[in-house]
Structure formats: C-alpha cells, structure tokens
Amino acid sequence: MSHSIYSGPVFEMARQQFKTVADHLDIPELDRDRLLYPKRAIAVSCPIHRDDGRTEVFQGYRVQHHLTLGPTKGGTRFAPSVDVGEVAALAVWMSWKCALAGLPYGGAKGGITVDPYTLSPRELEALSRRYMQEMIPFVGPHTDVMAPDMGTNEQVMAWFMDTYSMYQGQTINEIVTGKPVSAGGTLGRREATGRGVAYLVGRALDHLGIEAGCATAIVQGFGNVGLVAALALTERGVKILGVSDHTAAYYDPAGLNVAELQRYAARRGHLAGFSTQGLIDAADLLVQRCDILVPAAIEQVITGDNASKLKCRILAEGANGPTTPEADLILQQRAAEIFVLPDILCNAGGVIVSYFEWVQDLQRLFWEEAEVFDRLYRILERSFQQVIARAKRDRISHRMAAMAIGVNVVQSAKQTRGLFP
To answer: Could you read off the pLDDT of 19-43 as tens digits, one per residue?
Structure first.
C-alpha cells in the first residue's frame, strides 16, 4: 500500500515490527498489507460549547484493525499527541495482544486530540458524549467495544455507555468496558493491567531464580498501570527505588514509600512537589541500577540511545510500544542480561479483564473478584509459557515470539475465512 493515511513515528514503529515478524514467519509479500493495514479508520469533528461561551471543535479518531475473530476492542485516549497514525499503531498492537491471549477480538483504538487537563468537568463530559455520539454508526457490542486509555477513566466510559444507551432506547452495558461497577463494570478491572504486570514480573523472577524479597524496581509512569504495578510489586516484597510521572521523577536507593506517593498524587493529581529530596532527571531514572524496570507511561522511551545503558535484569513493558525497533536490536544482543516481558504480553491484563467484563454484561451474570483474578492469572500464565517456549524453540527474542504467536493466529483466521468476493 504505497499511499497510506497512516504515518508518523509510532505507526512506522508498528510497521517495522510487523515486517520483522513477517520476515521471520515467511509470510508472502502479497499477504502482508491485508494483515497490517486497518480495516477501517474514522475521523470525526467533535464541537462542544466551552464554559466561556465559545464553540470549539476537537478532532476525534477511531481505527478498527480487523474484525476477523470477533468485534474489535481497544481504548480511547484523550491526549495532545493523538493522530490517526498513533491510533492505528495502537490498534495493530492490540490485535496481536488479543490474539496472543486467545481473546475473540480484533484490535481497535480511538482518541481525541486534546489535553484533558485543560477541560472543566462539564466540558470533559460534553466532549466525551459528543465523541460517542459521532461514533454510534461505527461501533456496537458486536462491532467495536471501547475502553479507557490515557486521559480517560471509568467516568468517561459511563458517559460513553449512557450516550449510546440513550440513542438505543435501552441500557447497553456491553458497549464499553472499564465502567464503574455500579454501571455494569467488573470487579478488578481498574487494577487488572498493573496486577497483571506484577504477576508476570513474579513469573520472570521465578524463571531467573531471584527472590522477590531481595528484588528492586523502578517504575516510569504513575498513572493507573504504573501505580497499581508499584503497589502490587511492593506487596510481593519488591523494593521500589524510583518512580516518575510527566511532572517529576524520584529515586532513592534506600527505597520509596509508594503508599505516601499514592496519597500525594491522589490529592495533587501529579508527583511534582512531593519532595525536594531524591529528585532525578526523568531520562536518568531509566538507566539506574535495578532488578525490574517498568516503563508504564508512553511509547518510545527505551531507544537506541539508552538501551545499551539499561542496568535492569527484567524489562517489564507496562506501556504500549515503549521500546523502539533500534532499542530492540540492542536488547536482543543483551538477551542473556535482560529478560524482556514484551508489551503485548506484559500489559494484556487490562484487555483480558475487559473481555471478562464484556462477557459478564452480555450474560447479565457477574463474578466475584477472586474469580476475575483467578481467570486472569490462568490466561497470563498460559501466554507466558507459550512465549517462553516459542522463544526457546526458535531461538528468538521474547518480543518476536509473542508477536509471532499473535500474527499467526490472525493470519490463520484470515486464511480460513478467505476473502469476501
């Protein structure tokens, strides 16, 4: 596909990753575009009344990668960086993630180009509802199921669900996941991604013969994923040496009090100003010595410039696409030193429990929290074992193994179904 609307560094990264795995799998050139390029991309204008009386128009997107295995599934982010290329890349990664976990979904992603922190609560509600209103012709419980992402949360999902339900004339809980429990959400969804990261870190520690009680960690990103992962690692006995968000980074070789940081961030909305001690440059934080490094914020933070300087034993990718292809080449050379938990495995807990929420909503039958996490850990365990076995069998990196499994599943399903004439 020579002329494509999908461009930018993040989509180029997804395309490069796919090319590498397609070469490894010997996928014919003629079959590759159908596997890589999204089925559908939607761009919408979202006008809202600002509190000062102005009308402002925001740009919204939704990309549905493939519907071969079932409806598409993916988050909706409100961030200044959102463009169709970034959204498409995230949708592609979501496809491989769902396929690796064995979920009956294709990948999707959506978003609005906006800094949500510049909106009042009323403006945020107006924009959320307008975006869903514009998406109604293209989404549905068996077509595309939304979820939260950067800049959105349970409340935004509740507004999405209410807007869609009002249009349908009945309550359709299953149109979105990541909702409040009071609106048809599932117990455990908010913590699922971070708890999943901590579970897989535990499995990697076991694999390497490292005691959790003797291990140290640095967590980049203190949003939902990073915070929950830090708390869950602390519960396992891991000492947290460093944390950061978009406003500040802290490092203390004696260990940080994550609960105190959590309370401060809950009050202030960020980490800046927590302390004058332990402040460190955010880029330097990533290369401090630790057993576990968890990038849990944005894409492309482990790069060709810093990958050779990492001093961790386990790289647990809580974020989507935190490691560039250039960094990947370096990490492959350091495979004996650094055990990589690739993003499509490491952060799959969120979409797995979103799947559970969707199933519960469809059945109108809800599970206890213990059942949610028991099922989550069983799926993560199976995926972990598959990735380790594939990497060992084919002598490839963990990322290549995870991607190969995911791409194989989608490729096989597309071949089996054939091409509609």
So the answer is: 999 999 999 999 999 999 999 999 9
Q: Which of 109, 309, 311, 414 is catalytic?
A: 109
Those residues whose C-beta lies under 8 Å from the C-beta of residue 255, and which sit 6 or more positions away, are 216, 239, 240, 241
Can you say whether the dihedral through the CA atoms of 63, 67, 69, 73 is positive or negative? positive
Task: List pLDDT tens digits, range 6-18.
Answer: 988 889 989 998 9
Residue intervals in the chain for CATH 3.40.50.10860: 9-187
Look at the domain 9-187 and name its fold.
Rossmann fold (3.40.50)
Is 347 annotated in a binding site? The answer is no
Is 224 annotated in a binding site? The answer is yes
* Predicted TM-score (pTM) of this structure: 0.92
CATH class of 190-341: alpha beta
Who's near 300: CB < 8 A, 6+ residues apart?
9, 10, 13, 321, 322, 323, 324
> Does the annotation place 97 within a ligand binding site?
yes
Assess whether 414 carries a catalytic annotation: no
Give ∠ CA 176-351-39 in degrees, rounded to 5. 75
Share of the chain above pLDDT 70, in %: 99
